[in-house]
């Protein structure tokens, strides 16, 4: 049974308590329970008002999303709302903890809302590719006006109690005892005459009805960053219904939009990601009994691109950090970048000056290892060279207190080898952040052969504390993300030589849903990094190398695969590059032809999926959904496609295997040789996860 609702009368006030731990989701029994309790309060002549509240630690987390996609059971959440709203006695929602999604929608159908000062309110449906589907898009605009409603519904972010009071979502904030204050509130309402239910209020809509241009402009601004997702636009359409249509009609149309989205590909993908992120926290051998070590202080070695960003991420999460560098000049350079980044955030209004100063105050610097010896955690972000890492870990092993966690931010190097440079490999792991590390959500936690379970638990807990999305991966060259990226990039140069232009390839990626294609991305990151790396390894890449030899390193030199004479955001195809490609193709005797977007995707995205399957076979990633989480949070894979492995299953594994075989035959490139797991799943019609679990199944 999915919870219920408890009924109790105190004098003239009935108190209905939602009881469905842990988050009081509005499952079937809660919906029925609340309606029954409202009926009871309606019928009880001694009762003049009702308080609706949540038992346990919160009001309600909203709909029971395990019911999504199943046959709906009556009464619906909309029925609950109608029942609350059409009561002949005032109903007050008394909110503590949080009221999200359907939870907030139910409170909107009450006649008043009071909350504790630390409450969080929100309509996060957009993050699951949906709109609020139980009247939220019709009631909220009637309560706070349509533009303010967009601010809540389109981004889907939580709103604090103070903000909610200011915009009018809350009527009151409780002084100390929420329930007593709520009873007093409902008595006030009962004494002062029944307040108008939101369904009957039009006053906040008048201005937009007269002239909706302000609303439309505001909506356009909010959806500018929708990145190909339908739901933010659908939210706008639904809120506009509040302006354009009568309440009941608006409710019905809101429902239609909700159902259409629920059945669509994007919401399916986004709901997959919602569960995938939770699943990623489950790591074999790291149960609840494994307690993370306390991390009260941290050190970061290296104040370059990554070290600076990692130090910021830790400081932003409330952890004091000591940054260790080789020289005072390096410290000054690194700190100047950090200060500039914080100042930019202040200028943009994303943090206040006080918050900036608080964060900066958590950062200290040193050139001496003695100063970091007592830190609970060290993250090394020095040059990507084994000899340098070896030197650093040797010193850490000498000075660090016993039990300190020693992490490397290496992109490719063997974390087991790094662990062996110390006498305490059980304390060593990889914590691989992504650039810019203070912004990007992904944290690959690299588990070495000897890494202790509580060290992994510490990294998981810390990752969450500083707002990252941690995924535990195994040791291999490039771990999950970079290893798949190199498979994706393997055909970049052949595609150019055979006839595609950089902008053809980039356009295929944009049409697929990426916000940037690989060549524009290369120009942004700097082509010289890979060039130097290839030179040190004795490798070549004809076109990439030729560009670098010309000093075309990308945006930073004004030219790369594109030219940027009108600024870094304005990439223009460059005939010089086309000429270079044609010349190199001729030298190599490659016949050029026109290459379409389908071929580009098959030769880039399919090998990357194939590499993902190999990574699963080797146990480097625990589950296909972990790979999706890596690619969504670290490499901007289009959210609406749910990650590469989810997308592959939607596109059809058999089709992907068939195309991989085709390209393998044609190019001989090993990246196309289908992984055994992929073949097995394709042949048996199983999902990748099922094929992994089915150890005895024959390929
Ligand atoms: P960087 O060159 O910007 O910074 C390295 C910093 O380490 C420099 O400031 C240097 O002075 C300092 N350093 C070098 N040796 C040192 C030593 N022995 N003791 C103290 N400080 C020392 O390099 P970046 O890009 O920050 O990379 C650092 C690490 O992070 C590398 O392992 C890299 O593979 C990894 N990484 C880089 C990413 C990126 O996008 N740049 C992404 C993820 C990981």
Automatic annotation (TrEMBL):
Residues 298-474 form the 3-hydroxyacyl-CoA dehydrogenase NAD binding domain. Residues 478-564, 600-686 form the 3-hydroxyacyl-CoA dehydrogenase C-terminal domain. GO terms for biological process: fatty acid beta-oxidation. It catalyses: a (3S)-3-hydroxyacyl-CoA + NAD(+) = a 3-oxoacyl-CoA + NADH + H(+). One of its GO terms (molecular function) is enoyl-CoA hydratase activity. It is found in: Peroxisome. The keyword Lyase applies. PANTHER family: 3-HYDROXYACYL-COA DEHYROGENASE. InterPro entries: 3-OHacyl-CoA_DH_NAD-bd, 3HC_DH_C, 6-PGluconate_DH-like_C_sf, ClpP/crotonase-like_dom_sf, Enoyl-CoA_hydra/iso, NAD(P)-bd_dom_sf. It comes from Hoeflea halophila. The keyword 4Fe-4S does not apply. This is Short chain enoyl-CoA hydratase /3-hydroxyacyl-CoA dehydrogenase. Keywords: Fatty acid metabolism, Isomerase, Lipid degradation, Lipid metabolism, Lyase, Multifunctional enzyme, NAD, Oxidoreductase, Peroxisome. Pathway: Lipid metabolism; fatty acid beta-oxidation. CDD domains: crotonase-like (cd06558). Signal peptide: none annotated. It comes from the Bacteria.
């Amino acid at each position: 049974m999915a919870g219920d609702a408890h009924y109790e009368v105190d004098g003239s006030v009935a108190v209905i308590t939602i009881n469905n731990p842990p988050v009081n989701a509005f499952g079937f029994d809660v919906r029925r329970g609340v309606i029954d309790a409202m009926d009871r309060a309606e019928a009880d002549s001694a009762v003049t008002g009702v308080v609706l509240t949540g038992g346990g630690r919160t009001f309600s987390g909203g709909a029971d999303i395990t019911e999504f996609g199943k046959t709906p059971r009556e009464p619906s959440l909309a029925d609950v709302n109608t029942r609350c709203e059409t009561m002949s006695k005032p109903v007050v929602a008394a909110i503590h903890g949080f009221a999200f999604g359907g939870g907030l929608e139910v409170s909107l159908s009450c006649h008043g809302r009071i909350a504790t000062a630390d409450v969080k309110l929100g309509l996060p449906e957009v993050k699951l590719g949906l709109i609020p589907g139980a009247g939220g898009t019709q009631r909220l605009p009637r309560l706070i006006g349509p533009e303010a409603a967009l601010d809540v519904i389109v981004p889907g972010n939580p709103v604090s109690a103070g903000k909610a009071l200011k915009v009018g979502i809350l009527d009151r904030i409780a002084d100390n005892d929420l329930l007593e204050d709520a009873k007093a509130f409902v008595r006030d309402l009962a004494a002062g005459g029944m307040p108008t239910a939101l369904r009957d209020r039009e006053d906040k809509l008048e201005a937009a009805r007269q002239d909706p241009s302000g609303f439309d402009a505001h909506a356009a601004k909010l959806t500018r960053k929708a990145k190909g997702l339908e739901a933010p636009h659908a939210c706008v359409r639904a809120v506009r219904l509040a302006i354009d249509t009568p309440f009941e009609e608006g409710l019905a149309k809101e429902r239609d939009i909700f159902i259409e989205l629920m059945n669509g590909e994007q919401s399916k993908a986004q709901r997959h990601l919602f569960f995938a992120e939770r699943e990623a926290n489950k790591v074999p051998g790291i149960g609840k009994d494994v307690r993370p070590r306390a991390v009260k202080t941290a050190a970061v070695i290296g104040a370059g691109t990554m070290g600076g960003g990692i130090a910021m991420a830790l400081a932003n999460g409330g952890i004091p950090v000591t940054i260790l560098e080789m020289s005072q000049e390096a410290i000054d350079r690194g700190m100047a970048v950090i200060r500039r980044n914080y100042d930019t955030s202040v200028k943009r209004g994303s943090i206040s000056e006080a918050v900036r100063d608080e964060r900066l105050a958590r950062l200290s610097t040193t050139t001496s290892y003695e100063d970091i010896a007592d830190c609970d955690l060290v993250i090394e972000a020095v040059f990507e060279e084994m000899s340098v890492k070896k030197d650093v870990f040797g010193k850490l092993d000498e000075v660090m207190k016993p039990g300190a966690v020693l992490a490397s931010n290496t992109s490719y190097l063997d974390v087991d080898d790094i662990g062996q440079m110390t006498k305490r490999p059980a304390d060593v792991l990889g914590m691989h952040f992504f650039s810019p590390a203070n912004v990007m959500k992904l944290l690959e936690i690299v588990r070495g052969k000897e890494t202790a379970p509580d060290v992994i638990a510490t990294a998981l807990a810390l990752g969450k504390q500083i707002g990252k999305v941690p995924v535990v991966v195994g040791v291999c060259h490039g771990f999950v993300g970079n290893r798949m990226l190199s498979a994706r990039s393997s055909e970049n140069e052949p595609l150019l030589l055979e006839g595609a232009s950089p902008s053809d390839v980039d356009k295929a990626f944009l049409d697929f849903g990426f916000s940037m294609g690989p060549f524009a991305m290369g120009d942004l990151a700097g082509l010289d990094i890979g060039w130097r790396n290839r030179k040190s390894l004795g490798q070549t890449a004809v076109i990439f190398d030729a560009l670098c030899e010309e000093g075309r390193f990308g945006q930073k030199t004004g030219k790369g695969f594109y030219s940027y004479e009108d600024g870094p955001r304005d990439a223009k195809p460059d005939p010089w590059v086309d000429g270079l490609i044609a010349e190199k193709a001729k030298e190599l005797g490659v016949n050029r032809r026109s290459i379409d977007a389908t071929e580009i995707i098959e030769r880039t995205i399919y090998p990357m999926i194939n590499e993902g399957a190999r990574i699963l076979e080797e146990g480097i990633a625990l589950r296909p959904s972990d790979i999706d989480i890596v690619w969504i949070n670290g490499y901007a894979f289009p959210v609406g496609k749910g990650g590469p492995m989810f997308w592959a299953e939607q596109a059809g594994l058999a089709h992907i295997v068939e195309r991989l075989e085709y390209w393998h035959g044609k190019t001989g490139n090993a990246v196309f040789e289908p992984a055994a797991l992929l073949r097995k799943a394709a042949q048996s019609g199983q999902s990748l996860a099922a094929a992994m679990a089915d150890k005895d199944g024959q390929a």
